[in-house]
Structure to design on (869 residues):
């Protein structure tokens, strides 16, 4: 392999610790018309040992007027070197500094770019139709240095006095409340806003915003909470405000300490690269992750907003108050916030049954990604800044949350909570390593947390546990052995082992754990007493352990009636399906066997089980999309969904459960994908009625309906959708339309969708998903990859980091031949993508898995699908 994850021509080093910051006085003046910013910073330093150089971070800034003053008040002007490659600023002093206090002053300036990092500009349209700019910040992971020179590492915490210059009529916000305001000298249209001193904190959670916003507010636990929205949309912040007001006291109880700042602002930012960012006291969001409209927001989106607020607010303690020492421990921040988000959502909305959704939302995806050879350990060594961005991935977030959930179950709720409280109290305002959390949990529980957990956080992958059983009277003897679970099914050369918390349930009480043991060797034997001759025994009830289970055929056979009668709990049915499908991918079982088993789910009515089944079927789609099997496969899928679709119908019913409300649009959307003609026709009828004002199309069904209209349509429908896009006020609605455009069955129009994606009409963070939607169309797959190759330079400049990695992965991983793998590989060798290397490697691995899979099962699959029709 010629693409190497560890690129970077200069060896990376962390900043020297001889001089560290204690306090910054930061003055920022963004010019929203000239689109530049200027500022100055006075940084109080502590000199730890005598030195004649000071090194901090700075990137893409013009730095001037640097002076350094020692404790005796002697000021010198050092020689200054800026390294674009290392992103550092080095001051070489004529007179060495003695240990003690010192102060560095400097001025800086830079353009206000549209790159969505550092201090950047966001475009919006004012109510009178004028195009204007706001300024906002996004510093995580390493972009504070693009706004002001600083010690931009999470462990180098300091306090901050921030001052913003803003037009008189604009909102100016930062982490802390305003302490005083004054007129800007000789410029009455401007004002100078001073904010109160922050607690000691890391640079990556500093934030500033200047722009036009409305807000609504409330008080919870003596904290003023505000949600800032675009002008005229204040009420769309109500749902998030209510969630935040309830979550703060909940977390106070759970974490054992009050929210540490006097105010909390949540703000919707027009151009925003990620979902949300946990800046302390000023949490920034993409509009679609915080704005909820009672009529036009879908049920799934509304739930998602509650989850995002829960995730970000957990960071106020976990991440902001106690911070990882280095990016290697990022998972601790993200995995834990993800876990806490489920806790808080469950508290706010018990009827969401969010812990069940955890399995389909989080757990299954993490198992799939982590079975690739190109996955990485949760604790991943990180050096160059370009590598940091790429670990904000499914492993840090989802696998992180899964292993924390497994640990929570292993220790029990009370011991786990006591350990978390101890950890937060012991390390508040400080920095931690992963081991610090294990130490606190070990103290609170008396269990061997460190030994168990390090096998999960320091190794790539997870085990598949193979079981077999034999009987001695009413004793069932289960033999369980572990080996690494790999997507290609081949043995692992590394011979890894995990400390696996095994748990068992049986048909006597399907939702109870009857036995627990830790599998710490390669193989173990477990004796279960009082098991009847017809009873089944299942491992990992509730899908809590982060492992798969492989059963022998006779054990699987015993489950069948429990699946059909739904005696087996939903999450167990769910994990059986998911584990079986993984065996299919690995070549240990056949795709046809899986499709046969899936048919026993026709009467299924649980959202999570369907979610799992359908994601397995979607996984087959790229294999079949360019073969003669596609239509028979669609027919098979339509048949599978017929009963549940009939049961659910098109309209929400009074009193139905939240999960049923989520299941309906999922079923309809899939029937649209599988070209079910009656569904396409009805979806279009509802759409037309909605347009004509003779009926309503529920927000939950709009995505599917827009795709249905476009699938059946041509240029006229395409133009109509574009018109609706232009008229839509809500970003959520715009996105629904934009993501549907890729469904049009016309290569020429698909090309115009790709051009549209890169036009001014689509916000930069959204265009990636529009391109992905074209690629998901059989007719657009090749087109989009060609388009990417032609526009690679523009796209690389536009989307450094996560979005770029997501884009290249989505556009390439559905190929199914070795020739394609070689072509993709060659392209990225010739066009290096720093920060997306791991995603490219994962894509290549997936293409090769697809190729082997298709070759292996093609014949049998083709015969099976032909006789299904
Ligand atoms: Zn987070």
């Amino acid at each position: 392999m010629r693409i190497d994850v560890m690129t970077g021509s200069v060896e990376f080093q962390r900043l020297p610790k001889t001089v560290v910051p204690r306090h910054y006085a930061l003055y920022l003046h963004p010019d929203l018309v000239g689109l530049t910013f200027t500022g100055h910073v006075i940084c109080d330093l502590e000199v730890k040992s005598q030195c004649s150089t000071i090194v901090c971070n700075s990137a893409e800034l013009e730095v001037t007027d640097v002076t350094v003053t020692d404790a005796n008040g002697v000021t010198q002007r050092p020689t200054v070197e800026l390294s674009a490659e290392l992103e550092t600023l080095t001051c070489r002093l004529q007179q060495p500094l003695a240990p003690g206090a010192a102060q560095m002053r400097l001025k800086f300036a830079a353009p206000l770019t549209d790159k969505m990092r550092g201090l950047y500009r966001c475009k919006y349209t004012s109510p009178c139709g004028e195009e204007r700019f706001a300024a906002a910040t996004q510093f995580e992971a390493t972009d504070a240095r693009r706004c002001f020179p600083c010690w931009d590492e999470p462990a180098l915490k300091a306090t901050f006095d921030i001052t913003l210059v803003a037009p008189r009529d604009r909102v100016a916000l930062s982490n802390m409340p305003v302490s005083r305001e004054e007129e800007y000298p000789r410029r009455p249209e401007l004002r100078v806003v001073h904010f109160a001193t922050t607690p000691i904190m890391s640079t990556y959670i500093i934030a500033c915003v200047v722009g036009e916003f409305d807000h609504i507010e409330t008080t919870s636990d003596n904290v003023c909470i505000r949600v800032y929205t675009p002008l005229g949309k204040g009420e769309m912040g109500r749902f998030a405000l209510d969630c935040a007001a309830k979550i703060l006291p909940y977390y106070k109880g759970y974490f054992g300490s009050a929210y540490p700042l006097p105010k909390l602002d949540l703000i919707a930012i027009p151009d925003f690269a990620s979902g949300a960012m946990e800046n302390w006291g000023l949490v920034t969001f993409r509009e679609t992750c915080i704005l909820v409209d009672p009529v036009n927001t879908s049920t799934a989106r509304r739930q998602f907003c509650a989850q995002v607020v829960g995730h970000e607010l957990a960071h106020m303690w976990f991440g902001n108050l106690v911070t990882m020492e280095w990016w290697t421990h990022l998972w601790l921040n993200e995995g834990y916030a993800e876990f806490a988000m489920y806790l808080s959502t469950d508290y706010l909305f018990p009827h969401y049954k969010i812990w069940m959704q955890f399995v389909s939302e989080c757990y299954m995806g993490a198992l799939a990604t982590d079975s690739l050879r190109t996955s990485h350990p949760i604790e991943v060594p990180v050096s160059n800044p370009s590598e940091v961005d790429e670990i904000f991935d499914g492993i840090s977030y989802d696998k992180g949350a899964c292993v924390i959930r497994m640990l929570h179950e292993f220790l029990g709720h009370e011991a786990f909570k006591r350990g978390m409280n101890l950890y937060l109290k012991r390390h508040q305002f400080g920095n931690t390593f992963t081991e610090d959390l294990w130490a606190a949990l070990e103290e609170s529980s008396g269990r061997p947390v460190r030994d168990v957990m390090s096998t999960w956080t320091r190794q790539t992958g997870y085990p598949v546990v193979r079981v077999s059983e034999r009987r001695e009277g009413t004793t069932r003897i289960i033999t369980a052995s572990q080996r690494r679970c790999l997507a290609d099914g081949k043995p692992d050369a590394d011979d890894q082992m995990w400390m696996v918390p095994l748990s068992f349930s049986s048909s006597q009480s399907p939702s109870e754990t009857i036995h627990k043991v830790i599998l710490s060797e390669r193989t173990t034997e477990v004796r279960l007493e009082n098991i009847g001759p017809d009873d089944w025994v299942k491992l990992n009830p509730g899908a809590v352990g982060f492992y798969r289970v492989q059963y022998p055929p006779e054990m699987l056979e015993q489950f069948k009636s429990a699946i059909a009668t739904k005696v087996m709990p939903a999450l167990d049915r769910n994990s059986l399906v998911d584990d079986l499908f993984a065996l299919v991918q690995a070549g240990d079982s056949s795709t046809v066997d899986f499709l046969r088993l899936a048919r026993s789910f026709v009467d299924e009515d649980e959202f999570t089980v369907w979610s799992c089944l359908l994601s397995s079927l979607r996984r087959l789609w790229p294999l079949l999309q360019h073969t003669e099997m596609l239509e028979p496969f669609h027919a098979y899928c339509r048949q599978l969904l017929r009963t549940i679709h009939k049961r659910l119908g098109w309209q929400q019913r009074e009193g139905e459960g939240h999960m049923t409300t989520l299941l309906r649009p999922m079923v309809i959307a899939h029937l649209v994908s599988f070209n079910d003609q009656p569904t396409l026709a009805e979806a279009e009828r509802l759409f037309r009625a909605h347009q004509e004002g003779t009926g309503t199309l529920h927000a939950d069904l709009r995505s599917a309906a827009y795709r249905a209209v476009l699938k059946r349509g041509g240029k006229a429908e395409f133009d109509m959708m574009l018109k609706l896009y232009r008229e839509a006020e809500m970003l959520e609605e715009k996105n629904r339309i934009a993501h549907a455009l890729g469904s049009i069955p016309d290569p020429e129009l698909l090309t115009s969708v790709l051009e549209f994606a890169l036009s001014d009409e689509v916000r930069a963070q959204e265009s990636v998903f529009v391109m992905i939607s074209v690629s998901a169309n059989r007719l657009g797959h090749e087109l989009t990859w060609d388009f990417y190759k032609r526009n690679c330079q523009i796209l690389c400049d536009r989307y450094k980091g996560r979005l770029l990695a997501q884009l290249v992965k989505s556009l390439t991983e559905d190929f199914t031949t070795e020739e394609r793998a070689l072509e993709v590989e060659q392209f990225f060798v010739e066009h290096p993508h720093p920060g997306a290397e791991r995603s490219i490697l994962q894509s290549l691995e997936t293409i090769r898995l697809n190729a082997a899979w298709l070759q292996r099962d093609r014949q049998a699959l083709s015969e099976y699908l032909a006789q299904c029709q």
Observations:
- The chain is about 40% helix and 20% strand.
- Residues 278, 311, 315, 334, 337 surround zinc ion (CB under 6 Å).
